[in-house]
């Protein structure tokens, strides 16, 4: 993880609240991200992560508060990788075609081929290390390869802010590590601000500058080592939470579960547990 050098505000979520049918989904969520910052949006399923991303995108209207991107209301310079895209293996669309759609897929009619367009696509494919499979049908690619193509698709118009909704879900361990490393490199090399949602923070711990932790529609934000603490998360959840660090991973669990884990660890041979 590298420290931020550019303090320009790219995203400001200002006390955002969202309700569905009278039920509060988000309550006074408040945080800011700066240029080149890599932020993990962490929370369990149903905690409001996708709703928050949809609100930032303008797909969901806030009941209170607001969102500014690059100091202005509205979408601004923004890229987005959605949570689920179903891709037919027989769809006659190559990886490079999907990336090119990020340039002009919103326009009516067939795009006109040009050297400039192809050069832009080739440059972005190289940036995400996808050149060697770019001419294969996108539905035939592995999950990790598809994610690289979707990231290139989202970045080809050079946004300053990239939102990713659970991009690590259903990927194998190797693909998770390579996608996280790729995103960190892109944020450094291109100065992109990244907000990535996930239910597991552990793959992001080595690279993220900050964390927005969601629980029951409320959020706490800041550096991970300041946020992911028992006292802070107990206040967020409204009941006692233990933070356990074991084998280089962080476990956030309710107190009863923590007691069970401690008892199990005490029953293990001494050499079996290594706590950093």
TrEMBL record:
Domain ABC transporter: 11-241
Coiled coil found in the keyword field: no
Pfam families: ABC_tran
GO molecular-function terms, A-Z: ATP binding; ATP hydrolysis activity
InterPro entries, per database record: AAA+_ATPase (IPR003593), ABC_transporter-like_ATP-bd (IPR003439), Metal_Ion_Import_ABC (IPR050153), P-loop_NTPase (IPR027417)
Keywords of the record: ATP-binding, Cell inner membrane, Cell membrane, Membrane, Nucleotide-binding, Plasmid, Transport
Top-level taxon of the source organism: Bacteria
Keyword Transport included in the entry's annotation: yes
UniProt family annotation: Belongs to the ABC transporter superfamily.
Matches recorded under PANTHER family: METAL TRANSPORT SYSTEM ATP-BINDING PROTEIN TM_0124-RELATED
Protein's name according to its UniProt entry: Metal ABC transporter ATP-binding protein
Species this chain originates from: Paraburkholderia sprentiae WSM5005
């Amino acid at each position: 993880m590298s420290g931020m050098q550019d303090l320009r505000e790219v995203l400001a979520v200002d006390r955002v609240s969202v309700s569905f049918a009278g039920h509060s989904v988000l309550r006074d969520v408040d945080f800011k991200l700066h240029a080149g910052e890599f932020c993990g949006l962490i929370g369990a399923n149903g905690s409001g992560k996708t709703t928050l991303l949809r609100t930032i995108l303008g797909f969901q209207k806030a009941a209170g508060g607001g969102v500014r991107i690059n100091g202005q209301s509205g979408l601004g310079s923004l890229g987005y990788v959605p949570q689920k895209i179903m891709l037919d293996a027989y769809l006659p669309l190559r990886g490079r075609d999907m990336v090119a759609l990020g340039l002009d897929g919103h326009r009516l009619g067939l795009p006109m081929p040009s050297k400039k367009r192809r050069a832009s696509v080739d440059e972005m494919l190289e940036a995400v290390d996808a050149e060697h499979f770019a001419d294969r049908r996108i539905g035939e690619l592995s999950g990790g390869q598809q994610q690289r193509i979707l990231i290139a698709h989202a970045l080809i118009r050079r946004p300053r802010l990239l939102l990713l909704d659970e991009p690590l879900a259903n990927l194998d361990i190797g693909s998770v590590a390579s996608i996280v490393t790729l995103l960190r490199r892109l944020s450094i090399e291109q100065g992109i601000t990244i907000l990535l949602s996930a239910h597991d923070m552990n793959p992001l711990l080595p690279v993220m500058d900050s964390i927005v932790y969601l629980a029951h529609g409320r959020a706490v934000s800041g550096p991970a080592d300041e946020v992911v603490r028992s006292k802070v998360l107990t206040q967020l959840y409204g009941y006692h939470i233990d933070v356990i660090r074991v084998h280089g991973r962080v476990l956030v669990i309710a107190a009863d579960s923590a007691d069970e884990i401690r008892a199990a660890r005490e029953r293990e041979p001494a050499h079996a547990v290594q706590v950093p």
